[in-house]
Design goal:
Length: 357
């Protein structure tokens, strides 16, 4: 297992590569070229620059999160082939430079959603939280304003304020796109991209929907055992895999996280680990990684990964805001570093108890 840390680049992150390097056990970072508009091919020199910058700090570029998929591809619009062509160019260029992991998602229009980016807990820390009744009473435009106002000045992927202007048109492109159509559009995309991944040695790892159900009337199709298996079977190549994100799949108590890990096996290329405190259906808050702080059994999750022989890339996911740190919501240094240490500790115990038995 390679422990990694997400890094948004030196202009966009409050956390530096030097700080990340001092977290014990971290082998590398997960990053992206955040300023390249979605749908454009990534320039070779920019990929090279990113990789060099990371390597010069003593870390490795372990993967990209995300090479985002243009909405024309997701909606199956008439210009999708052009964007798929650009995507393939990016895959080839990343593969050429030794990057072998791409995380992406297939959520229409938005990325992850929370009703509160800084809910205060009893100990004075703040966490991101979700309440369906609040989301039900809000429209996407209001949501944009709220998420951006509360993001400490950072841009949240999927919630770029300029998107708001074209939002109506964007929703219109999805008219008639139900779950089945969205699935077909995903398969169309994968059938074009996966053969290139096979040739260039690049694993595609789709990120599950967060939360694990449709929002704002838009379909979502990657959030439970059945629809993930269906996706993996539709393009049955090892390179067509999954980012197993506990905090996304775990928003629904119907998902048995440990059981899913065992079933998905070697199609899991990337793991995001965080814990949630589930208060009820459609109501949760993020918590510290420690099992007893939330609703998930972290030991069981790591043990399942250990049992399937997982040797891919892991990262701590969203953390709490603690010790007065101001950062991009969910992506401060302190709580994610604590998370990484805890996960490393569980992993060490698993390895050593296995050796002893
Ligand atoms: C991430 C997602 O911050 C997060 O919760 O897990 O934003 C993730 O990067 C994207 O969905 C992947 O495309
Ligand atoms: Mn995630």
């Amino acid at each position: 297992m390679d422990m990694s840390f997400r890094w948004f680049g030196k202009d966009e992150d409050s956390v530096t590569l030097e700080q990340i390097r001092q977290i014990p056990g971290i082998k590398g970072v997960i990053s992206a070229l955040y300023d390249i508009p979605v749908g454009e091919a990534w320039p070779v020199y920019r990929i090279h620059q990113l990789k060099t910058e990371v390597e010069e700090s003593g870390l490795a570029l372990l993967g990209i999160e995300s090479v985002n998929v243009h909405d024309s591809i997701k909606a199956g619009a008439s210009d999708r082939d052009r964007y798929i062509g650009n995507y393939i160019t990016t895959v080839k260029r990343l593969g050429d430079q030794g990057v072998s992991l791409i995380c992406y998602n297939f959520m229409p229009v938005f990325d992850w959603l929370r009703s509160d980016l800084a809910q205060e807990r009893q100990d004075g820390s703040t966490v991101m939280a979700y309440r369906q009744d609040i989301i039900d009473g809000i429209n996407p435009e209001m949501m944009f304003s709220q998420m951006n106002a509360d993001a400490n000045g950072y841009l949240l992927p999927g919630w770029e304020p300029d998107k708001m202007e074209g939002l109506k048109a964007l929703f219109d492109t999805y008219r008639g796109v139900d779950e089945q159509r969205l699935f077909e559009n995903l398969v169309y995309f994968l059938k074009a991209v996966i053969p290139v991944c096979e040739e260039y040695g690049v694993n595609m790892a789709i990120h599950p929907d967060d939360p694990a159900w449709p929002i704002f009337g838009l379909p979502r199709i990657i959030h439970n055992r059945e629809n993930i298996m269906r996706m993996l079977k539709a393009v049955d190549s090892k390179y067509n895999g999954l980012t197993f994100c506990t905090g996304s799949l775990g928003t629904s108590s119907d998902n048995d996280l440990s059981g899913m890990i065992k079933e998905l096996g070697d199609r899991i290329h990337f793991v995001h680990i965080r814990n949630l405190k589930i208060h009820g259906k459609g109501h949760f808050e993020e918590s510290a990684h420690l099992s007893s702080d939330g609703s998930f059994d972290m030991y069981a999750i790591l043990k399942s990964l250990y049992d399937i022989g997982f040797n891919g890339v892991v990262r701590p996911d969203h953390g709490r805001a603690i010790w007065g740190e101001i950062s991009r919501p969910g992506y401060g240094l302190y709580d994610r570093a604590l998370g990484a240490m805890y996960l490393n500790g569980l992993w060490e115990a698993l390895e050593k108890s296995h050796l002893r038995n």
